[in-house]
Design goal:
Order of helices and strands: EHEHEHEHEEH
CATH superfamily: Phosphoglycerate mutase-like
Number of domains: 1
Number of helices: 5
Number of strands: 6
Helix content: 25-40%
Distance between the termini: 45 Å
CATH architecture: 3-Layer(aba) Sandwich
Shape: globular
Largest sheet: 6 strands, mixed
Radius of gyration: 17 Å
CATH class: Alpha Beta
Strand content: 15-25%
Length: about 210
């Protein structure tokens, strides 16, 4: 009989970001009060699973998201650079709230090819590092379950990679809400299933009305 293992990819909770900065890998961005509530809720949800291995991105918001679960399970957290946020050349800007910044001619070379994308870390590179991290987490939790707290784009690209879908996509259509859980099931080393859940959905509904959501 095959051994079943599940790796849960969790997106961090809401970040305190009232200026709407594209913070990327910048340090100093922490969960908001609501984000900490999300961390508690997703921690409670995952604590009912057979979790034996915990992994986090090195960024503060990811570590703060996994903290309640780690405390409940009395388990150490492995920091893995491979599950960090995607690199983005617009980091530190406010292009989301002020897209007119992209009209600056010096930025145009960054926009020539959205399929790569030309403004940041290639999707293929994100997929490669995330798949490797998932494989290692699967091996560490063999026969049980692992949790990796990462970021929206890496989690979404990992899902596309496991599903064999193209990486180029409309960011507005990503199924990867705040504090969501994308669960990848394996039979031995073979992909068995991919499931998606939003244990903090009620809090996410509130986040859309809060500055910095």
């Amino acid at each position: 009989m095959s051994t079943r293992t599940v790796v849960h990819l969790v997106r961090h909770g809401e970040v305190h970001n009232p200026q709407g900065v594209l913070y990327g890998r910048m340090p100093g961005f922490h969960l908001s009060e609501l984000g900490r509530e999300m961390a508690v809720v997703v921690g409670e949800y995952l604590s009912t699973h057979d979790v034996t291995h915990l992994v986090s991105s090195p960024l503060e918001r990811a570590q703060e998201t996994i903290e309640p679960l780690a405390e409940t399970l009395h388990q150490a957290v492995t920091i893995d650079e491979r599950v960090i946020e995607a690199g983005n050349d617009f980091e530190g800007m406010t292009v989301g709230s002020n897209p007119k910044q992209l009209l600056n001619p010096r930025l145009w070379p960054k926009l020539v090819n959205p399929t790569v994308p030309s403004w940041g870390e290639p999707y293929t590179q994100i997929a490669s590092r995330m798949q490797a991290a998932v494989a290692d987490a699967r091996d560490a939790a063999r026969g049980h379950e692992a949790v990796i707290v990462s970021h929206q784009l890496p989690v979404w690209i990992a899902r596309l990679a496991f599903e064999g879908r193209r990486y180029w996509h409309d960011p507005r259509k990503r199924e990867c809400s705040l504090a969501s859980v994308t669960s990848i099931g394996f039979a031995d080393d073979n992909l068995l299933s991919i499931q998606y859940s939003e244990p903090a959905a009620a809090l996410v509904a509130r986040a859309s009305k809060v500055p910095g959501a």
